[in-house]
Amino acid sequence: MKLSPILCFTKSRETVHMLFQLVHAAELIRTDAAARGININRVKCVVNYDAPQYIRTYIHRFGRTARAGKTGLAFTFLFGVQVKLLG
């Protein structure tokens, strides 16, 4: 598995994004802050390791997949209180 670290510094973020696109890495792990302002084509799946606090954040995260009439997958891991809140 190829992983590309992205730091929250603009120059580094842009550099890693460019490298990610060039090497066609399969996975990219990012925080919400690191994901802002970056558009990656061909996203087939988004995995949340935590549930976002706001529905607009949830929609924004999963909006990275299934663009332009394409299908995509989205998963969210829920823990403890998060499961109870949805129950």
UniProtKB/TrEMBL annotation:
GO molecular function: ATP binding; hydrolase activity; RNA helicase activity
SMART domains, A to Z: HELICc
InterPro entries named among the record's database cross-references: DEAD_box_RNA_helicase, Helicase_C-like, P-loop_NTPase
Domain Helicase C-terminal: 1-87
Range of residues in the leader sequence: none
Entry GO CC: cytosol
Keywords, ordered alphabetically: ATP-binding, Helicase, Hydrolase, Nucleotide-binding
Keyword Transcription listed: no
The protein, known as: Helicase C-terminal domain-containing protein
Organism from which the protein derives: Echeneis naucrates
